[in-house]
Specification:
Distance between the termini of chain B: 39 Å
Strand content of chain B: 5-15%
Strand order of the largest sheet of chain A: 9-6-5-17-16-14-12-10
Oligomer: heterodimer
Order of helices and strands of chain B: HHHHEHEHEHEHEHH
Number of strands of chain B: 5
Structural class of chain A: alpha/beta
Largest interface: A-B, 36 and 22 residues
Largest sheet of chain B: 5 strands, parallel
Radius of gyration of chain B: 18 Å
Chain lengths: 455, 220
């Protein structure tokens, strides 16, 4: 199905109130499909080891999209898809996508469950609030980490010159332009001028102002869009899609199913996750990102979200060649050992399920620049190591990692961490001795637990 | 069982089964049986809705159940309110809340959870939806004689509009008339202090606690 047809249906589909869509089309159907397809979490497992459950979840997710459709929030109309259109989209989904330029041109690809090929690593500030004074340095430090394939969401400029930025304002356009310029400057300084950059500059339509072939984000840089929970899309996203599809950039679409929300527990929410992956493909996505949210913990590394991430990826990657990736947000903040243990646990759960990896970032950064390029390196190393593990082997390590942080999953008690400028020598752009020691200590412990690092 | 006990039991069941029609029927039975509507509210609806709120906190139930229970209670309470109004009286509510997601922000779920939890805890909630312009918050608060204005923002950029509502209230001389509580992913206590909000809730459960614990400040 082409975008023109989807956009047309957003104007002509059945008119329905948002609450009715969520309660009657999403929540009611998820509840019914959980029973029909026997999709049930056992209440204990942190990772799914049951292939049949994954396959039933896939079938239930496809059926959910057929029954519910995708909700256009601004027109209040449902974009409905037929069974044939859904099957065609799955069959025609790209299994690999090329991005970036020159020596830094990279290929992201579909991975199967327990696929021994290393995941595609997307890491960077991950849209954490980034201060303009540190934007280039921070991204340069990420780009100089050679294991990172693609610079991921180079930061979020919420103010310029101390002035907070209002969406769709002149300042917002200015922020989008600078975002593109500074991200390009960062990869150039790191000696990787063609390194792909996944961008989402500002949360408004003038986001597209980041595009500039010479000084900003290029045609070969993927652009990120976000579907809203659950199975909803807004006009700004549709408008950006219309532009970027026509311009020819790779399309990266994220969805954020909410555990405890309209899907209920991790099992029902995984059904929504599958439906959202397929909806993303129908909108034109080449890379589909799941970033589960949690109504209580707000992180992606709690027990519910570990299982959800594992199940939704296995379901999709066993039954399609969609390119999936999973984001990693944690309770522990950057600079703490807990931060690394949390993202490692989730990586083991999802990489063994066929996912590529995006992140990491604290779920609730305290202030600007609360991310670390050195942790981006460890994130890549753990992701690569996880591709050597079976789900069974990963499960044992995940249990031990989860035990380390399960009592500190609340954002109120999780470690406060430190910003980039305290974790790095900003002049030399190297980690401080203390931050390096954190990396060494965590890596040693992960090795002891059985994570098979390359070095 | 006495007639009262039978009716209260039906009211409990209606909430526990998230059944708005049954809640209306049970509330009508209470009125027909001559039970004081205020007593019926407390003994028939308040107890099960509190338990629903607690079950949601424990994640024994999820958002759809919470919303359906809150809707069932709202439907039943309307019947009891009608009966009290006919007597020239009114139900004593904890407070009236005007709630919405601020301008430029289309995120709905967090705000919906907060609204359902407020309702489950005895507040009258007027949900203005998403992308609510600053003047609309104030207009709705005036129209409903609200005690509380609750604003959600999920984006770092849209939280600015929480400040705008407060500035507009100040410019109209209405700031002290309302208790203003804010929340949302990028929102912090520091931001609440900076813009002059009276309260901040990290999540729906904390938002209820903040309103309850500051009742003396906003109760009219």
């Amino acid at each position: 199905m082409n975008f023109k047809e989807v956009a047309k249906r957003a104007e002509t589909g059945p008119l329905i109130e948002a609450n009715d869509f969520l309660m009657q089309r999403v929540a009611a159907n998820v509840l019914a499909l959980k029973k029909e397809y026997d999709v049930k979490w056992d209440g204990k497992s942190l990772i799914n080891l049951d292939d049949q459950l994954a396959d039933r979840c896939w079938q239930a997710g496809k059926e959910l999209l057929l029954r519910s459709g995708l909700y256009s929030m601004n027109s209040r109309r449902v974009i409905q898809f037929s069974k044939e259109e859904i099957e065609d989209a799955i069959r025609l989904a790209p299994s690999q996508i090329i991005m970036g330029e020159g020596k830094e041109q990279k290929t992201a690809y579909h991975r199967g469950v327990e696929d021994p090929r290393e995941p595609f690593v997307m890491s960077g500030p991950f849209n954490a609030d980034t201060h303009e004074s540190m934007f280039v340095k921070l991204n340069e430090a990420f780009a100089q980490e050679r294991l990172i394939d693609c610079l991921f969401l180079p930061g979020y400029l919420k103010e310029l010159d101390g002035q907070m930025i209002r969406p769709n304002s002149g300042l917002s356009s200015r922020a989008a332009v600078l975002y593109g310029e500074w991200a390009r400057e960062a990869v150039r300084r790191a000696g990787r001028p063609g390194m792909p950059i996944i961008g989402h500059s500002v949360m408004a339509l003038n986001e597209i102002s980041c595009t500039n072939e010479a000084y900003g984000l290029r045609r070969t840089d993927p652009r990120a869009m976000v579907l809203l929970s659950e199975l909803q899309v807004d006009d700004v996203t549709m408008a950006r899609l219309g532009y970027y599809l026509a311009y020819g950039t790779p399309i990266y679409i994220a969805h954020t199913p909410l555990v405890g929300g309209y899907g209920g527990g991790p099992d029902g929410t995984a059904i929504i996750g599958v439906a959202s992956f397929i909806a993303s493909i129908l909108l034109g996505a080449e890379i589909c990102h799941v970033g589960p949210q949690h109504i209580k913990y707000k992180t992606q590394t709690n027990n519910h979200s570990l299982f959800l991430g594992s199940l939704v990826n296995q379901a999709t990657n066993r039954n399609s060649h969609i390119i999936t990736t999973t984001s990693h947000t944690t309770a522990g903040r950057t600079g703490s050992d807990q931060y690394a243990y949390e993202f490692s646990a989730l990586e083991l759960a999802v990489v063994t399920g066929g996912s590529n990896i995006s992140g990491p970032r604290p779920a609730e950064p305290l202030g600007f620049n609360n991310v670390s390029p050195l942790m981006g390196r460890l994130f890549a190393e753990v992701g690569h190591a996880a591709s050597k593990l079976t789900r069974e082997a990963a499960a044992g390590i995940i249990e031990q990692l989860f035990a380390k942080y399960k009592d500190a999953m609340s954002l109120e008690v999780s470690p406060k961490g430190a910003p980039f400028e305290q974790l790095y020598d900003i002049q030399k752009l190297v980690p401080t001795a203390e931050h390096q020691a954190c990396y060494d200590r965590v890596k040693e412990e992960l090795t002891r637990l059985g994570v098979p690092f390359n070095n | 069982m006495t007639t009262e006990e039978i009716v209260f039991s039906k009211m409990h069941s209606a909430i526990e089964n998230y059944d708005a029609d049954a809640a209306v029927t049970a509330a009508n039975e209470a009125v027909s049986a001559g039970i004081d509507p205020a007593v019926a509210l407390e003994k028939g609806f308040a107890d099960p809705i509190r338990k629903i709120g607690e079950a949601f906190e424990r994640m024994d139930i999820f958002l759809p159940e919470l919303v359906m229970a809150a809707n069932a209670m709202k439907a039943g309470v309307e019947v009891l309110e009608g009966a009290l109004k006919a007597r020239g009286s009114a139900i004593a509510k904890k407070g009236v809340v005007v709630l919405g997601t601020v301008e430029g922000d289309i995120h709905d779920i967090g705000k919906t959870v907060v609204g359902a939890m407020f309702q489950a805890n005895g507040y009258e909630v007027h949900d203005l939806g998403v992308e609510v312009p600053a003047p609309r918050f104030i207009q709705a608060a005036e129209e409903t004689k609200a005690d509380v204005i609750a604003m959600s923002a999920l984006l770092s950029t849209t939280m600015l509009y929480q400040r705008d509502v407060i500035e507009l209230l100040q410019s109209k001389g209405l700031k002290d008339k309302y208790f203003i509580i804010i929340g949302g992913a990028p929102v912090t206590q520091k931001w609440a202090d900076e813009i002059g909000a009276n309260g901040y809730g990290r999540d729906a459960i904390e938002a209820v606690r903040v309103l309850d614990s500051h009742a003396k400040e906003w109760a009219k």
